[in-house]
Specification:
Layout lengths: L3 E12 L6 E6 L2 E7 L7 E9 L2 E9 L6 E11 L2 E4 L3 E4 L5
Antiparallel strand pairs: 1-4, 1-6, 2-3, 2-5, 5-8, 7-8
């Protein structure tokens, strides 16, 4: 089955006070990245590429260390490839016509 490279962007924000929190990004339960958030009072645009066959793939962010931290993800969007974001966090890839 043919796979496609899909570029996804989203805006990520963490609020914290004591120590920088750590978060993970999963796509279809596969770990894509683990990061320590070190910025204060700003959203960052995060980009990742999913190489997959047509289908539906949940996108999930998880805070690993809480210590009073909060994680907010908004504006998840596809910027390249035959796909869309469905129901706020499902990456739906379709077969591209030749």
């Amino acid at each position: 089955m043919h796979t496609y490279d899909i570029t996804v962007l989203c805006d990520v924000y963490c609020k914290w006070s004591k120590e920088p929190p750590v978060y993970r990004l999963f796509v279809n339960e596969e770990l894509f990245t683990e990061r320590t958030w070190i910025w204060q009072n700003t959203y960052l645009e995060e980009e990742f590429v999913v190489r997959a066959a047509p289908g539906q793939y949940p996108i999930e962010y998880q805070l690993i260390t809480s210590s009073g931290a909060g994680l907010k993800v908004r504006n998840i969007r596809v910027v390249h490839g035959p796909a869309r974001i469905w129901k706020d966090n499902i990456l739906e890839i379709w077969h591209e016509s030749p």
